[in-house]
Amino acid sequence: MRLKNLNIDKETPIFLAPMAGVTDLTFRQICAELGADVTCTEMISAKALSYNNKKTFDLMKKYDGETPAAIQLFGSDPGLMAEMAQRVEPEFDIIDVNMGCPVNKVVGNNEGSALMKNPLLAEKIVSKMAGVLVKPLTVKIRSGFDKDHINAAEFAKRLEGAGASAIAVHARTREQMYHGSADPEIIRQVKEAVGIPVIGNGDIFSGEDAVRMKEKTGADAVMIARGAQGDPWIFARVRSALDKKATPRETSINRMKTIIRHAQGLVRDKGESVGIREMRKHLSWYTAGMKDSAEFRRKTNYIVSLKELIEITEAFFNG
Fold first, then answer.
1. In whole angstroms, what is the distance from residue 263 CA to residue 277 CA?
2. The predicted structure's pLDDT at residue 67
3. What is the residue-wise DSSP string for 142-210?
4. Which of 145, 172, 273, 305 measures 20 to 30 Å from 213, CA to CA?
5. Which residues of the chain have pLDDT under 70?
């Protein structure tokens, strides 16, 4: 798949979706090693970046060799978005714009999915950014703001005209948040409306889900979000399904080692206190559905050190 001057050497690339509080540096590396073709930072506020906010700079750190790597920016000021995109362009292969985040504090600032109610402003943002960038500019959108305003195809066509190199479609409305089912028909409509690549997102939790997504929508690539939480091995399964190869086996020892590696990375990058606190949700996802996982999660709610986390994790898996 080609995005402007970037060639992604896969017939159907697999993208790791940007997820706030999830796609940290170590998790992105794990996902890439397991088959994610394109990684992306957590979403970055253009305004916070312009203020040289330290936490924002921390979110932008990459691991050695992270490529193709995307950074996702959000904001509603076309000039500021263009300025910040140009600022981060040297460090990343793709600049992505968030026009799909449904959370109140983002929507309330006329950012994220609120832009789907204002296509003229969205078009201006993309036009300003595309005008100063050499590298690909992609945009992540939703089906629409609510069920009475499904405008993804028309919206995507505007963004293509403004200079977007690809459109990622989360086939839910802002009103749905993350509930209900994603509608592949919306992605198909977007694919038919534009000539640039379309990335299908929503309800991919297995290799079969990814194959169905591609078959029903004609999407050029697939994007995995919540399906990767606690399950980075999904990228290997999706790649096998898309390439019609045998599904690789994932062992409990590999799961344990991955958990420990992820925790070590978070502690290294964010310090022990913050790293352990952030790791708790990942521990819940990694062990969901496993025998005695409720007791394991109860214990991990009280850990304060990496040493404790490793001891409890090893005891759980070896037991």
1. 10
2. 96
3. EEESSTT-B-HHHHHHHHHHHT-SEEEEEEEETTTTT-S---HHHHHHHHHH-SS-EEEES---SHHHH
4. 145
5. none
What are the domain boundaries of the chain?
2-242, 252-318
To which residue do tokens 């036009």 refer? 127
Domain 252-318 is in which class?
mainly alpha
Q: What percentage of the chain carries pLDDT values higher than 90?
A: 98
Within the chain, strands assigned E span 2-3, 6-7, 14-16, 39-45, 69-74, 94-99, 137-144, 166-173, 198-201, 221-224
The distance in angstroms from the start CA to the end CA of the chain is: 45
Give the model's pLDDT for residue 249.
84
The predicted pLDDT at position 151 comes to 97
**pLDDT value for 165:** 98
Q: Which residues contact 267 (CB under 8 A, 6 or more apart)?
A: 275, 276, 306
Which tokens hold the place of 121?
């402003």
H helices, E strands: number in the chain: 14, 10
Query: How far, rounded to the nearest angstrom, does the alpha carbon of residue 226 sit from its chain's CA centroid?
Result: 9
Structure tokens at 252: 């409990």
b/e per residue 74-101 (b: at least 16 CB within 10 A): bbbbbebbbbbbeebbeebbbbbbbbbb
pLDDT at residue 319 in the model: 77
Backbone angles phi, psi at 140, to 5 degrees: -105, 125
Active site residues: 101
The pLDDT value given to residue 40:
98
